[in-house]
């Protein structure tokens, strides 16, 4: 057996087992190797054996139970794994926010006496947090499930579309006049190691987006300056909470776009044209939304500097006084826009480079 034949066999097995749950892949890989070996010993060539086995996507269906599946076996492991992480992060964030809010309310109610009112406030905060846990947990579950369900359905349509892409080489024995017949030449190469997308990076991005989104929805007041005013801890929000009902939807839309891109990275698992286009489109959309948030909306708390100065009580020489003296919302907006543009270009540039240098064909 020459190197090309071995490469074709490896490609075929890879294309089959990548569509199966992880706990099946090792066993199926060994079965396929044994099956192909037996067929080769019978005198058939590698091309004939793989052609007889047929399209690896259809061959993999023999091991899949797709009856009434919203999310098929190919995606189910990633779906379940990601769902556990997202729900854990979201619920933990809501609980922590509720406890912190309860402690803070208790301090305010008891004028610094943490015995009594603070304990009651913490309990009340946790009790109120159950509503937040239910809403955020349900939203996270629905969002992740919807994303993977769309992936499952889009994959089916994508494969049907790919069957129409034929060339002159498909004419003759490989063409029936109605549809293209799969041949071993259709096998995509196994991804290069540098073409693989780190699952850890995708998960880190998803976890950050979920935690940041929960904080924006349930505790936007936590983003600001924290000041000790005697025995009381005060927070001066940096965002314009009076117009938060207008600002928050754009924030959430930007996060949802980023979440969709990260889920796509996780599911596909390697750089390809689909991942590259997604990165470019989502990066452009997020930059447009960031521009509108920072430049077209009353994003910053107009009383931020005034409230800081009031609570500081004219204490000169402190770092916060320097912030009060130098605070300029337009300047901060411009800095954040420049930073966002730089990070977006870096991310998109890295994706384009890895796709063009190491990427393979779109997944089929």
Could you explain the architecture of this structure?
With 364 residues, this protein is mainly alpha-helical. Helices cover 68% and strands 3% of the residues. It contains twelve helices and two strands, in the order αααααααββααααα. The protein has helices at residues 3-17, 22-41, 46-53, 56-60, 73-110, 117-162, 199-218, 244-268, 273-296, 304-312, 319-326, 329-358; strands at 224-229, 232-237. The chain has a two-stranded antiparallel sheet. β1 (224-229) and β2 (232-237) form a beta hairpin. It is elongated, with a radius of gyration of 27 Å.
Strand and helix layout:
Blueprint: H1 3-17, H2 22-41, H3 46-53, H4 56-60, H5 73-110, H6 117-162, H7 199-218, E1 224-229, E2 232-237, H8 244-268, H9 273-296, H10 304-312, H11 319-326, H12 329-358
Antiparallel strand pairs: 1-2
Helix pairs in contact: 1-2, 5-6, 5-7, 6-8, 7-8, 8-9, 9-12, 10-11
Task: Describe the structure concisely.
The chain has a two-stranded antiparallel sheet.
Task: Note the total helix count.
Answer: 12
Please state the structural category: mainly alpha
Strands side by side in the biggest sheet:
1-2
Helix content: 55-70%
Largest sheet: 2 strands, antiparallel
Radius of gyration: 27 Å
Order of helices and strands: HHHHHHHEEHHHHH
Low-confidence stretches: 156-179
**Count of distinct strands:** 2
What global shape is seen? elongated
Distance between the termini: 27 Å
């Amino acid at each position: 057996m020459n190197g090309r034949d071995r490469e074709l066999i490896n490609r075929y097995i890879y294309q089959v087992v990548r569509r199966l749950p992880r706990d099946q892949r090792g066993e199926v890989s060994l079965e396929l190797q044994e099956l192909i070996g037996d067929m080769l010993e019978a005198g058939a060539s590698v091309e004939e054996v793989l052609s007889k086995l047929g399209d690896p996507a259809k061959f993999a269906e023999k091991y899949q139970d797709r009856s009434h599946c919203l999310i098929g076996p190919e995606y189910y492991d990633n779906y379940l794994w990601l769902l556990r992480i997202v729900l854990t992060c979201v619920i933990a964030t809501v609980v922590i926010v509720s406890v912190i809010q309860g402690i803070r309310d208790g301090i305010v109610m008891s004028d610094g006496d943490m015995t009594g009112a603070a304990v009651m406030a913490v309990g009340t905060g946790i009790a109120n947090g159950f509503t937040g846990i239910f809403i955020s947990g349900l939203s996270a579950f629905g969002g992740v499930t919807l994303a993977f369900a769309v992936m499952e359905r889009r994959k089916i349509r994508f494969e049907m579309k790919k069957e129409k892409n034929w060339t002159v080489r498909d004419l003759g024995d490989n063409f029936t006049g109605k549809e293209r017949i799969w041949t071993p030449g259709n096998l995509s190469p196994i991804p290069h190691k540098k073409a693989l997308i780190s699952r850890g990076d995708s998960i880190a991005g998803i976890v950050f987006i979920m935690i940041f989104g929960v904080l924006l929805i349930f505790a936007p007041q936590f983003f600001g300056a924290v000041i000790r005013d005697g025995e009381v801890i005060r927070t001066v929000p940096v965002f314009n909470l009076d117009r938060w009902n207008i600002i928050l939807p754009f924030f959430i839309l930007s996060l949802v776009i980023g979440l969709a891109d990260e889920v796509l990275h996780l599911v596909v698992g390697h750089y390809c044209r689909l991942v590259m286009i997604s990165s470019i489109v989502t990066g452009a959309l997020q930059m447009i939304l960031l521009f509108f948030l920072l430049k077209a909306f009353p994003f910053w708390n107009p009383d931020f500097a005034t409230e800081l100065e009031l609570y500081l009580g004219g204490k000169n020489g402190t770092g916060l006084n320097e912030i009060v003296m130098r605070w300029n919302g337009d300047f901060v907006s411009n800095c954040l826009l420049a930073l966002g543009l730089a990070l977006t270009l870096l991310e998109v540039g890295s994706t384009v480079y890895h796709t063009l240098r190491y990427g393979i064909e779109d997944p089929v």
